[in-house]
């Protein structure tokens, strides 16, 4: 049996067999996009290891052979003191479980001899296989309805280094804005750092657009790659990337990742771009997206400055005066709405969160304590607004060159992560041109132009679309709707496309 | 400070922030009368303060925060258990992301390709989340036991977490994440306590 498959253009296999991540990387290879050389140990091997507690027979030999192939491809040798081969060892299950399993980086970077390094690689593969069973991963599967017996594949690739020099870095890039759906790439980049620093949220990322002037060639390559992937999959996508001395490498690709409002806009735009037909556009928007799109949001083109952008943590729009400590928030709240701005939050900030109409943190992610408390209190919040620095001593917030003293009015949008100076007001989906067009298409297809709810208009059209394809299938029923595993809270997968999730 | 439970009250304020008497007493695991005596002593020493107005909450002064840092450092040195507390903190930090996942899953759920607010209309989903809280609590039990063995005052967290989880299991589901004394709030305070005790910054 063959358990190990090179990441090569002539390799074909399902996401069930190779894992969604490796499956996505193979698609990228076939599209001619830059993927670090490597190989994947498939999910059959992962399941066998979980069952028996050891590698299946033949896997050791296949692993050794695959390493030799990678050595030949890179001109480096595992454990060699002069030209060591350094590899990453990552998980990749058939269904996306982002951040739930182990990753080992830089294996072989400090060589200790070929035998020994091969032993380390073997142990790393076992560690990743076993991480399928960590309690956190088990919880994730329970809550996302993912079967517990799938196991994970393991991807071994030559390391690329985002921390090599000043022409290196790493990041995450969405082909379209995941919060608004705008047709401009959006994401975060870390200059001179490895990708795991981006994901962990512990380093200060910069807006992706800064690549345009700091690494224009990488920016050009990245935009072209995103476009190529969109054309192929006929859907919005996002990638994890590294650039190593000016050379772009793609490490992962996923579909969607769009909020409700963005999912609607992207579906309509893709139809306008003739990448999908209108029926497909209607299929890609779920009633949940429509409901989420009705959350009031900051107008996108109101002429107000976006001061900073963090991660959406608790929905809704809040406007108020800045307070930089919980104590000040409590005092100031007596005179009107307050926005509490903190680096992170501790239990000592809870009275401030309770007194404020909205909260911003400069660090932390959508599952931070601050985000959870804000949602528990039903108050809008944006977390991880890394461009902001909070200075309780001088009672101000800094954003680049701007200094905002306590009392400055600002507005946060807990659905998009945007933070604006002043009060731009709010709009709702009822004024959204893309939504109106989508619903017009829906009525045309269903042939029903009577007064009824937006959700009804969508589901009526979806029933017609589904009926045309599969006489018995009703996409409006949750149990039979095409299921796609969701990303972690705060981001949503936006479409049902791409067959298996490229997670 | 000489009185044995006065430092505990000081440290409780350090970990839970501004709180009214009943919550201070509950978190410290002593009677309200005893807690109030200690709070008054702390106020006289300039370490605690009581806000005026309808809430009348107690909190630490800057001097009280400094005194607590001094006291916890001395406590840990005297007990000679810094290594054990550090080891327990490492184990806590393995559980912490999972607890935060579960709290988020209580508020937001994946549904047909979207992440939507959990409106709690699907009792099967809520039961799955609660089951995972119970499972995690069993593993947290080991960390709590290590901590209580290293510094007995940590035993109070085990009792409080159990109370919150029992309330949630008997139907008061707001005691998971959405209450002043929810499982998440107590966990958040335990996290703060570990950072304060070890003198670590919040990451």
TrEMBL record, chain A:
Q: What Gene3D superfamilies does the entry give?
A: ATP-grasp fold, A domain, ATP-grasp fold, B domain, Phosphohistidine domain, Pyruvate Phosphate Dikinase, domain 2
Residues annotated as domain PEP-utilising enzyme mobile: 337-417
Write down the InterPro entries for this protein, in alphabetical order.
ATP_grasp_subdomain_1, PEP-util_enz_mobile_dom, PEP_util_AS, Phosphohistidine_dom_sf, PPDK_AMP/ATP-bd, Pyruvate_phosphate_dikinase
- Please give the residue ranges the record annotates as the region Disordered: 465-503
In this protein, which residues make up the domain named Pyruvate phosphate dikinase AMP/ATP-binding?
Answer: 49-204
Return the Pfam families for the record: PEP-utilizers (PF00391), PPDK_N (PF01326)
Q: What is this protein called?
A: Pyruvate, phosphate dikinase
Protein's organism? Micromonospora sonchi
UniProtKB/TrEMBL annotation, chain B:
Reading the lineage from the top rank, the first entry is: Bacteria
Name by which UniProt lists this protein: Uncharacterized protein
Origin organism of this chain?
Answer: Micromonospora sonchi
